[in-house]
Design brief:
The protein is an alpha/beta fold. It has twelve helices and 15 strands.
Amino acid sequence: MLTDKSIVVTGGTGSLGKVLVRRLLSGEMGLPRRITVFSRDEAKQHHMRLAYQHRRAATDEVIYHNFEQLLQFRIGDVRDLHSVATVLRGADVVFNAAALKQVPSCEYFPFEAVQTNITGAENIVRVIRENHLPVETVVGISTDKACKPVNVMGMTKAIQERLFVCANLDCPDTRFICVRYGNVLASRGSVIPLFHEQIRRGGPVTITTTEMTRFLLSLEQAVDTIFAALSEGERGETYIPRVPSARVVDIAEVLINGRPVKTVVTGIRPGEKTHEILVSEEEAHRTMERGSYYVITPMLPELKSVDELKSPLQKEYSSADDIMSKSDLLELLKKHELLADDRLSYEEDLLA
């Protein structure tokens, strides 16, 4: 499907971007002609380039043949229209993983979130539209926080989804689709690395509220969702992975694993939900099952490919619906090698 295609991954040095790039290079979707990682952090690009060149360290000469490589790196920012126009020239498929995603950061700097999450998406659409670029597909990477949003990050991501859906009307030769998923296990800024660090320091482990639940999926499952949308998605559709969820207190207990570490309930943070929702009750009537995924069909009547869904979802899809047992949670974390602190005893860990 991607054989001999030119791929652009915005935000390609992030947690998701790096796994996506690795999977693209594996050739499982066909071997692209070129993959361009587009981001504004030269240090992260440098380290990622070294990793793919199997070097521990290098001076700046490693960049000199950048544009002769299958995997290329380009400094730029989705906020800057001219920068986006340059990187999209010649692109066939665009994965938009660039985002401000940490909830507190977006609350304190809301317009920064607007510029990256909304203006960045609009710049991609505008460049394709105004320059009549023959981009085949744009995949927007969204979040469960965009569903019934209560924080700035979710609000800006919700607008991003709508921008990409509507872009199918303005750019009829380009397919715009989205994926939306919940917490990614062990991604930067997520709860599992925080709990590991708190346990490593001897506690306490901080829990905002004992009722809180979260969806759990791995970065590999996130990329699986992106590839499923790319392979099967119709214009304007949003793909949702069907994944298990867990109580945050259970995650803490499994990670503590009997160590003498206390937990402290600190109270829910600003902009935080007790339960996350991936499909709202308002979206349920236009949501269907497709394989291992839920698919939200577009609201705009011009984009509807099915007059009436045969078996629409009957209610919202919430992290409170299907909570894992502690034993199942333990197996999930083991499977994804997230019980890293088990390598050392508690005492050894404190001394490390």
